[in-house]
Design a protein that fits this description.
Elements lengths: L2 E5 L6 H12 L2 E4 H10 L3 H12 L5 H13 L7 E4 L5 H13 L4 E8 L2 H15 L7 H15 L1 H8 L3 E5 L4 H13 L2
Parallel strand pairs: 1-3, 1-4, 2-3, 4-5
Helix pairs in contact: 1-9, 2-3, 4-5
The structure holds adenosine-5'-diphosphate.
Adenosine-5'-diphosphate binds next to helix 2 and helix 3.
């Protein structure tokens, strides 16, 4: 299995790139944000538990998120590899992911970060909020809170993967195709 972690701040373009990369490399795309939103919409037990955190732009607690993630991975026993989008977002999630992948005889092959300046990203999110219906994209305060969550809890993951020699940064500014090309170069060299 070639498992890739897509990494980046809110709005960095993880979901957009994932759509292209999953086709190109025949990977299973798992977006924790999408799975949570699906559960919210269908008002499942998981959705009810996640809603207050998501609507505020807070991270959903690790235990709940990790359980959901493992359930999703287990739905694809014959996959070529997983493209993780939005997971892990904390050190504890990264450790849980490593432990889980080890238990199934696999590992993270690479973490690829899409980099862009905060001002550009906030503009992108506010634009997306106009049409996506996502409450967490419509309010500058909630967006700020997501960046704070990112800086405090998610940014330390760069070090975590750097220490394992698995961290690759890619310039996330440019056309969608250009960025797919940059990410592909990293994957092709694995
Ligand atoms: N790995 C995770 N851990 C905790 N909460 C998560 C995780 N992934 C998604 N969420 C929740 O879902 C929300 C939306 O996720 P996502 O669409 O990936 O956000 P963004 O566009 O900000 O990167 C997050 O703000 C958070 O509340």
């Amino acid at each position: 299995m070639t498992n890739i972690v897509l990494f980046g701040k809110p709005g960095a373009g993880k979901g957009t790139q994932a759509e292209f990369l999953k086709e190109k490399y025949k990977l299973t795309h798992i977006s924790t944000g999408d799975v949570f939103r699906f559960n919210l919409k269908n008002n499942t037990e998981l959705g009810k538990q996640a809603r207050i955190f998501m609507d505020a732009g807070d991270l959903v607690p690790d235990e709940l998120t990790t359980k959901m993630l493992i359930d999703e991975v287990n739905k694809h026993p014959d996959t070529n590899g997983i493209l993780f989008d939005g997971y892990p977002r904390t050190i504890s999630q990264a450790e849980a992911l490593d432990a889980f992948l080890t238990s199934i005889g696999s590992q993270v092959a690479a973490t690829i970060a899409l980099e862009a300046d905060d001002e550009i990203l906030v503009q992108r999110l506010l634009e997306r909020g106009k049409t996506s219906g996502r409450v967490d994209d419509q309010d500058a305060e909630k967006i700020r809170n997501r960046y704070q969550e990112y800086n405090e809890k998610t940014a330390p993951l760069m070090n975590y993967y750097q220490e394992q020699g698995k961290f690759h940064a890619v310039n996330g500014i440019g056309s969608i195709a250009e960025i797919t090309e940059r990410v592909s170069k990293v994957i092709d060299n694995l």
